[in-house]
C-alpha cells in the first residue's frame, strides 16, 4: 500500500514536471522556433505516457480539410505526417462530431469502434493503430484541431492524467500558434502600410517623436537624390538638409512642437491647419539647380492608445501650378476687357453671393449702373418664389466646385421682374479653395413666355399619353422613333430616351405566329393590317428582355397643315394577360361542361356495358354446356365407327341434349351475340362523338364539318337532355365546311344544349310543362352558315337579355353557374371567328340563339 502511494506521488511529480517543461518552452518562444517547441512537447508527452506516436492536426481556414502539422514517433514507428494532408473533415463525422462537442476520444481498442465510426476505423487500421487517445484543440470557442496519441505495438488504456496532459498541452500549443499568427498578421499589415506609403506619388517621409527618420519613400529618393538606407535612423533635421540645404524646421517639426507653430519663422507662407495637421507652401531657391515652389502637408501619428509616436509629411512640387496661376491672372485681366463689352451680363460674386463685379451690359438689360449693384447680394434682386432654387443652385456649385445653370426672375431698375438664365462657374483661389463664382446671364423673358405656352401644351399631351393604358409610338416617315409613352416603355422594355432615334424595327420586334420568324419590316406589316385606326389581329412582340407579349395595334398617319404625311402614330395594347385569362376561362368552362357531362357519359357507357357483360357471361356458360354435349357426341361417333352403338349410349346422348337445353342455346346464342355487338357499337359511337367534340390535336383554324360536330355534341350531352326534353336535329346535308377551330365551336354548341336543358328542367319544376323540346338547325346563307338553337324552357326576361354575354352574369342560383359560358361563347363566335350571336325570347317561354359563322378565312 505504502509503495503504491509512493509510485502515485512520483507519477504526479513527473506529470507536473512535464507540464512545467512544456509551458516553459513556449514562454517568450520566438515565432520561428514554435514548430520545434511543439515537436519537443509532443516528444515529452509521448515518452511520458508511453505512446508510440503523438501528433497535432489543425483544421484549415476553409473549414473543409485538415492537416497533420506536427508529429513525434517512438523509435521503430513509421511517421504518417506526410500522408495525412488535406483530409476532408466531412469524411470523419463521428470523430469530428465528438470533438466539436468538446468530447475527448479514448479508444483502448480500435477494433471495437462502433459501426458509425467506419471511416475513422478504416484510416486508423491502415496505420496499424491499436489504441488512440485524442482531445479537441479549441480557440475562441471554435474547434481548430486536435492533439492525439497512438499505440501501435500494443493496446493501451489512456489514463485521466494522460488526457489532462493532452488538454493542457493543446491549450499551450494553440496559444503559441495564435500568437505567431497574430505576429505574422501584424508584420504583414506593417509591410502593407509601408508599400502604400512607398507607392505614393508625393514625396513622403515619416519621423518618430525624436525626429529620427523611420520611412523615406521612393518619391522622396527621386526628389532629394538620397537613398532611404542612407538616411533612415538619422535625426537632427537631416531630412531638411536633403531639401533646403539647411537644418530648418519642416512641417513635421511644427506638428510635433508643443507650442503653436510660427510658419514665417520656419520659412513657410500660407500655413494653415487641416484635419489635425498642417498645410503650407514654401519656396526653395535651389533644388537640383532650379527654383521651385513646394506644397507640403504634415500630420501627427498616434498609437492605438492615442499617444503620439511621430509624424508624416508629404511634399509636392507645385511650381508649374503657380506659373499657371500667374498666367491665369494675366488672362483674367484680358478677359475683363472682353466681358466689359459683351451683350450678356457678366457678374462675379464672392462665396456668400455678394456682387464683386458687374459688366456694363447690366445698364442696357436691367437699367442698373454696375456701381449701383456692386457690393450688394445678388439674391436681393431675385423674386421671392425663385430665391430658394437660386440659393440651392449657388450652394451646390460652391460645395461641389462644379458649373451649373439656373433660371429665375430678376428685378430690374423699374421694379419689374424679368426672366434670366444664368450659367455659373465656381472660382478657386491660389490655395484651391472656392472663393466665389462668375455668372453669364441673359434676358429670356420672351423665350420663357413662348416656352411656357409650348410647355403647357406639351404637358397636356404628355399627361394624356402617360395616363392612357395603351402604348403609343410616333415615328417619322422612315420609321425612326420620335416619342414613346410610359405604357409603351413598360410593354417594350425600352425607355423613351433609349428608343428615340432608333428605327421601329429595333424596338417593335414582332414574329409571325405560325412560322415564328421575325417580321423584317414591322411598319409595313402594321400599316397593312392596322391602317386607318383599325385594330389588327394579335401578333407576338418580343420585348427588350426577351419576354414575349401578345399585342393588338392600330396605326394612323400624322399629317402637317397641308395634309402631307410627316410620320405615323402607332397605338398598341398588351393583351397577354387578357389572353391568358380568356384561355383559363375557356378551359374552366370546358372543365365545367365536362364535369356536368361526366356522370351522363358514364351512364351512357355503363348501360350497354352491363348487358354486354351479361351476354358474355351467358356465352361463357353456354360454351361449357355445348362442349359437354360435343364430348358426348364424340363418344357416340367413336362407338359408331366401332359398330358397337348400344341403346344405352343413344339414350345417354339424348338425355345430355335435353339436360343442357341445346335447342334453347342454339336459339339464344345468336341473339346474345347480336345484342353485344349492338352495345359495342353504341359505346364506340359515344367515344367517337367525344373524340370529335374535343379535337385535342387541332388548336388552329382548319376546315371543319359543323354538322358532324353538332351530332357528336348531341351524343355526348344525351344524359343532360334525355330526361327533360326531346332533341330534334334539323341539319342541312349540303352545309359547306367552315374554316374555324372546331373544338371551340363544339364547346359553344355544348354550352347552348346544357343551358337549354337547364331552362326546360326549371320550366318542368315550375309546372309549366311535362317535357320540353330542343331544336338545332343548320343552313347555308351565302358566305355564312346559320346555326339556330331553340328550346321551350323558361325564357330570358327582356330586362336582362342584353346582359347575358357579360362575364360572370348568370340567372342561375348560387353554385349552379359561373356566368362564364355565354361570355366565352360570345368571345369565340364574335371576336375569334368574326361571326355573330343573337338571343331572342319573349321573357316567359322559350329562347332562341342564332349564330352566324363566315365560311372561309377571316380575311375573305
Structure notes:
The chain is α+β, with helices and mostly antiparallel strands and 860 residues long. The protein has 6 domains: 2-185, GAF domain (Beta-Lactamase), CATH 3.30.450.40; 200-317, PAS domain (Beta-Lactamase); 323-450, 2-Layer Sandwich (Beta-Lactamase); 468-574, Beta-Lactamase (2-Layer Sandwich); 581-689; 695-854, 2-Layer Sandwich (Heat Shock Protein 90). Helices cover 43% and strands 25% of the residues. It has 24 helices and 30 strands. The protein has a 6-stranded antiparallel β-sheet, sandwiched between helices. Helix 18 runs antiparallel to helix 19 and helix 23 (742-765) packs antiparallel against helix 24. The longest helix has 67 residues, at 576-642. The protein starts with a helix and ends in a 6-residue tail after the last strand.
Which strand order do you get reading across the main beta sheet? 3-2-1-6-5-4
Query: What is the strand tally?
Result: 30
**Biggest β-sheet strands, sense, barrel:** 6 strands, antiparallel
CATH C-level category of the largest domain: Alpha Beta
Cα-to-Cα separation, first versus last residue:
121 Å
Q: Which CATH-level-2 architecture of the largest domain?
A: 2-Layer Sandwich
CATH topology of the largest domain: Beta-Lactamase
Count the DSSP helices. Answer: 24
Q: Would you tell me the structural class of the helices and strands?
A: alpha+beta
Number of domains in the coordinates? Answer: 6
Estimate the helix proportion, in percent: 40-55%
Mean pLDDT: 81
Q: pLDDT below 50 for ≥5 consecutive residues: which ranges? A: none
Oligomeric description of these chains: single chain
Shape: flat
The radius of gyration over CA amounts to 52 Å
Instruction: Name the CATH superfamily assignment of the largest domain.
Output: GAF domain
Amino acid at each position: 500500500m505504502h509503495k503504491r502511494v509512493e509510485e502515485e506521488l512520483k507519477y504526479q511529480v513527473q506529470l507536473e514536471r512535464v507540464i512545467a517543461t512544456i509551458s516553459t518552452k513556449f514562454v517568450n518562444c520566438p515565432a520561428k522556433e514554435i514548430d520545434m517547441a511543439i515537436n519537443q512537447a509532443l516528444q515529452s508527452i509521448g515518452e511520458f505516457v508511453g505512446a508510440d506516436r503523438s501528433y497535432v492536426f489543425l483544421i484549415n481556414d476553409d473549414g473543409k480539410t485538415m492537416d497533420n502539422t506536427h508529429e513525434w514517433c517512438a523509435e521503430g514507428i513509421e511517421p504518417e505526417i506526410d500522408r495525412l494532408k488535406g483530409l476532408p473533415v466531412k469524411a470523419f463525422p463521428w470523430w469530428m462530431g465528438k470533438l466539436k462537442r468538446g468530447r475527448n476520444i479514448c479508444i483502448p481498442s480500435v477494433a471495437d469502434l462502433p459501426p458509425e465510426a467506419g471511416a475513422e476505423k478504416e484510416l486508423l487500421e491502415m496505420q496499424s493503430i491499436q489504441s488512440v487517445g485524442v482531445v479537441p484543440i479549441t480557440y475562441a470557442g471554435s474547434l481548430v484541431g486536435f492533439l492525439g496519441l497512438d499505440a501501435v505495438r500494443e493496446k493501451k488504456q489512456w489514463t485521466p492524467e494522460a488526457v489532462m496532459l493532452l488538454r493542457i498541452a493543446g491549450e499551450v500549443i494553440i496559444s503559441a500558434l495564435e500568437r505567431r499568427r497574430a505576429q505574422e498578421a501584424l508584420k504583414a499589415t506593417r509591410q502593407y502600410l509601408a508599400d502604400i506609403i512607398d507607392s505614393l506619388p508625393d514625396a513622403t517621409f515619416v519621423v518618430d517623436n525624436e525626429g529620427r527618420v523611420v520611412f523615406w519613400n521612393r518619391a522622396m529618393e527621386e526628389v532629394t537624390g538620397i537613398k532611404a538606407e542612407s538616411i533612415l535612423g538619422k535625426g537632427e533635421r537631416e531630412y531638411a538638409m536633403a531639401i533646403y540645404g539647411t537644418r530648418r524646421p519642416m512641417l513635421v517639426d511644427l506638428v510635433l512642437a508643443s507650442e503653436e507653430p510660427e510658419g514665417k519663422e520656419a520659412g513657410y507662407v500660407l500655413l494653415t491647419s487641416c484635419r489635425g495637421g498642417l498645410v503650407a507652401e514654401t519656396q526653395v531657391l535651389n533644388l537640383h539647380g532650379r527654383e521651385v515652389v513646394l506644397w507640403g502637408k504634415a500630420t501627427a501619428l498616434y498609437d492605438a492608445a492615442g499617444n503620439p509616436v511621430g509624424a508624416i509629411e508629404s511634399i509636392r512640387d507645385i511650381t508649374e501650378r503657380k506659373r499657371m496661376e500667374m498666367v491665369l491672372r494675366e488672362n483674367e485681366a484680358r478677359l475683363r476687357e472682353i466681358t466689359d463689352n459683351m451683350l450678356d451680363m457678366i457678374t462675379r460674386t464672392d462665396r456668400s453671393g455678394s456682387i464683386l463685379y458687374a459688366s456694363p451690359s447690366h445698364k442696357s438689360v436691367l437699367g442698373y449702373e454696375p456701381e449701383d449693384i456692386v457690393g450688394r447680394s445678388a439674391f436681393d434682386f431675385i423674386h421671392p418664389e425663385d430665391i430658394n432654387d437660386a440659393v440651392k443652385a449657388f450652394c451646390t456649385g460652391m460645395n461641389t466646385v462644379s458649373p451649373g445653370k439656373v433660371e429665375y426672375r430678376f428685378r430690374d431698375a423699374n421694379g419689374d421682374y424679368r426672366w434670366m438664365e444664368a450659367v455659373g462657374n465656381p472660382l478657386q483661389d491660389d490655395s484651391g479653395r472656392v472663393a466665389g463664382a462668375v455668372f453669364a446671364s441673359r434676358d429670356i423673358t420672351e423665350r420663357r413666355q413662348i416656352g411656357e405656352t409650348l410647355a403647357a401644351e406639351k404637358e397636356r399631351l404628355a399627361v394624356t399619353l402617360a395616363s392612357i393604358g395603351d402604348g403609343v409610338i410616333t415615328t417619322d416617315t422612315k420609321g425612326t422613333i420620335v416619342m414613346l409613352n410610359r405604357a409603351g416603355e413598360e410593354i417594350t422594355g425600352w425607355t423613351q430616351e433609349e428608343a428615340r432615334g432608333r428605327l421601329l424595327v429595333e424596338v417593335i420586334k414582332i414574329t409571325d405566329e405560325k412560322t415564328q420568324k421575325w417580321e423584317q419590316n414591322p411598319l409595313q406589316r402594321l400599316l397593312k393590317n392596322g391602317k386607318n385606326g383599325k385594330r389588327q389581329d394579335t401578333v407576338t412582340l418580343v420585348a427588350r428582355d426577351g419576354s414575349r407579349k401578345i399585342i393588338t395595334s392600330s396605326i394612323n398617319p400624322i399629317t402637317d397643315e397641308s395634309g402631307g404625311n410627316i410620320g405615323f402614330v402607332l397605338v398598341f395594347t398588351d393583351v397577354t394577360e387578357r389572353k391568358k385569362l380568356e384561355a383559363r376561362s375557356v378551359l374552366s368552362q370546358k372543365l365545367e361542361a365536362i364535369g356536368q357531362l361526366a356522370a351522363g357519359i358514364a351512364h351512357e357507357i355503363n348501360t350497354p356495358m352491363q348487358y354486354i357483360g351479361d351476354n358474355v357471361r351467358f356465352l361463357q356458360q353456354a360454351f361449357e354446356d355445348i362442349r359437354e354435349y360435343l364430348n358426348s357426341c364424340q363418344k357416340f361417333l367413336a362407338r359408331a365407327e366401332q359398330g358397337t352403338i348400344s341403346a344405352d349410349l343413344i339414350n345417354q346422348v339424348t338425355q345430355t341434349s335435353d339436360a343442357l337445353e341445346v335447342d334453347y342455346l342454339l336459339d339464344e346464342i345468336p341473339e346474345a351475340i347480336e345484342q353485344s355487338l349492338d352495345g359495342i357499337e353504341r359505346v364506340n359511337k359515344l367515344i367517337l362523338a367525344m373524340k370529335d367534340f374535343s379535337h385535342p390535336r387541332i388548336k388552329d383554324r382548319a376546315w371543319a364539318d359543323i354538322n358532324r360536330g353538332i351530332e357528336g355534341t348531341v351524343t355526348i350531352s344525351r344524359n343532360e337532355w334525355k330526361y327533360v326534353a326531346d332533341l330534334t336535329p334539323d341539319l342541312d346535308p349540303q352545309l359547306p365546311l367552315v374554316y374555324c377551330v372546331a373544338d371551340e365551336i363544339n364547346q359553344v354548341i355544348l354550352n347552348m344544349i346544357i343551358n337549354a336543358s337547364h331552362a326546360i328542367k326549371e320550366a318542368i319544376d315550375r309546372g309549366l310543362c311535362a317535357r320540353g323540346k330542343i331544336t338545332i338547325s343548320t343552313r347555308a346563307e351565302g358566305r355564312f352558315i346559320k346555326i339556330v338553337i331553340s328550346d321551350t324552357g323558361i325564357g330570358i326576361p327582356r330586362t336582362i337579355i342584353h346582359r347575358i354575354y357579360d362575364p360572370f352574369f348568370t340567372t342561375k342560383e348560387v353554385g349552379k353557374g359561373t356566368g362564364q359560358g355565354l361570355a366565352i361563347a360570345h368571345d369565340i363566335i364574335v371576336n375569334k371567328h368574326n361571326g355573330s350571336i343573337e338571343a331572342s325570347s319573349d321573357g316567359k317561354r322559350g329562347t332562341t340563339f342564332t349564330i352566324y359563322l363566315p365560311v372561309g378565312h377571316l380575311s375573305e
